[in-house]
Design a protein that fits this description.
Helix content is 88%, strand content 0%.
Length: 26
C-alpha cells in the first residue's frame, strides 16, 4: 500500500471518528 493511500484512509477514519465523538458529546 502506498503512503498517500494509507494517509487518506487515516484522515477519513479520523474525521469519521470525530463526527461520532461530536455526536455523542452534543
Amino acid at each position: 500500500m502506498e503512503g498517500t493511500e494509507l494517509y487518506e484512509k487515516l484522515m477519513t477514519g479520523s474525521s469519521e471518528m470525530s463526527i461520532r465523538i461530536k455526536g455523542l458529546i452534543e
